[in-house]
Amino acid sequence: MRKILSLIAVFTAAISLQAQTYNVEDLLRADRRLAAGNEGHYRFEAPALTPSPKGYTPFYIGHYGRHGSRYSWTPNTYTVIKTVLDAADKAGALNEVGKKFYEEYNDFYMTPFINAGDLSALGWEQQHKIAEITVANFPEIFAKGGKVLARASTSQRAIVSMNGFTVGLQKAAPKVDITANSLHTNMIVCNPPGAPKEMQERYAGDFKIPGGESPADLRLRKYDYDEVLGHIFNSTELFEEIGGKSNFVGTLYNFWAGYRNYCDDERFEHLFTPEQAVHGWEVDNYSNFISQSRDRFNNIPLLRDIINCAQEAIETGEYAAHFRFGHDTVLNAFVPLLNLNGCGYVPETADEVKYWFQNFNCPMASNVQFVLYRSKKNPEILFKVVWNGIEATIPQLEPVEGPYYRWTDFVAWAEKIYAEHPQVPVPQMPRWN
Fold first, then answer.
1. Which helix (H) or strand (E) element contains residue 124?
2. For the purposes of burial, counting CB atoms within 10 Å of the CB of 315, is it exposed (0-12), middle (13-18) or buried (19 or more)?
3. DSSP state of 400
4. What is the distance between the alpha carbons of residues 175 and 161, in angstroms, rounded to a whole number?
């Protein structure tokens, strides 16, 4: 264990040097879709996986996945834009681009407004395809059948995502015995912050906001509201009476980032220039980092469940896989808890966050898979983590070979996390008389 811990500083330092050798903004300029961040859809562009060490064969998968593509999670995304455009049209504050946008938006918005929060057709297709790819990547796990348990949060979009995945899994691996459910008791694993109050757990853990700068502060530094609004409006005076510039621009960005989850064309791409999209992403990314990455230790129940289910599979061989379906708020906290690719590092300033934590790595249908391997000649269980189809590094552990690590090392690391971050009382909401 001391060997594992001593390597943490070495690997973190190496990643620190690596993190500064590329410009995230250049990546976003080269691939505009990345600027959609959390609202972007899944990319099926993963490279080939590394062959397993000699003599080792995969036998189990532990999976946590975000629901697939959806409409905006709240109808407010659509109503805020509609209200502002209505008022601007009445006031004669729309320029020619704005008038065209207003006309197209009026024809467009009712369907996503009604379906706010629901899984789109693309979301179901993504999960179906991910299941097929999982079987294709690890056919040895499913060839002879075996039990599979799938669990989802109680959210409709998570349930339908689970359906898309299990249908794809059954098609690709007809011998597996699949059981699926969506129980409130699953929530402590599939969506810990949303678990019933009787089951909620909190864990001790400090989080220092980089430079003490809030997302609102960063937004003021990064955004030129008048420049963004000037693309649509010939006057911005009305914003003093209808919610302010910040609220509208933030909402417009969220709409722009997510509309391709349910729209086949790119009719609204013109709403943000490439540079404006980069700035919008950085603010959104930092907001996710503050609100979700700081919650990493409250996802210890998910970590425990992944390890406990894997241990059962190791000992009994009964289960081939456990699949869990939930949300970005969990995944964006869970991967920093694991410190995958060094994303658990908390930098000193808000401007550095984008080099460590990128929410475009948690798009719709994003997922993390723990793939366990065994050998007939070696009792040591190995594993690797596949994040969105790409093998991830775990800097605090010493690899055996390539992306492969010792399972016992990971379990020992997790035990240390449990010890350093004990459970604490859940804060009680105030009672109002």
1. helix 121-137
2. exposed
3. S
4. 21
Query: Judging by beta carbons within 10 Å of its beta carbon (0-12, 13-18, 19+), is residue 10 exposed, middle or buried?
Result: exposed
Q: Which of 140, 141, 52, 138 is nearest to 380 (CA)?
A: 52
Q: Give, for 281, the enclosing helix (H) or strand (E).
A: helix 274-291
Give the SS3 label for residue 386. Answer: strand
Q: Are 328 and 36 in contact (CB under 8 A)?
A: no
- Per-10-residue mean pLDDT of the chain, 433 residues long, equals 35 40 84 94 95 97 98 96 96 96 96 98 98 98 96 98 98 98 97 93 92 90 91 90 86 96 93 94 96 94 98 97 98 97 95 96 98 97 98 98 98 98 81 44
305 is written with which tokens? 């469940």
Burial 202-215 (b: 16+ CB within 10 A, else e): bbebeeeebeebeb
Q: Which helix (H) or strand (E) holds 226?
A: helix 225-229
Question: Roughly what angle, to the nearest 10 degrees, separates helices 407-420 and 2-19?
Answer: 90
Q: Kindly report, residue by residue over 53-74, the tens digit of the pLDDT.
A: 999 999 999 999 999 999 999 9
Strand partners, 323: 63, 150
What's CA 391's distance to the chain center, in Å? 16
> 290 is written with which tokens?
């503050």
pLDDT of 303 reads 98
Residues 6 or more apart whose CB falls under 8 angstroms from that of 312 comprise 318, 319
Q: Are 256 and 105 in contact (CB under 8 A)?
A: no
Structure token digits, residue 397 = 């552990």
Q: What is the pTM of this model?
A: 0.93
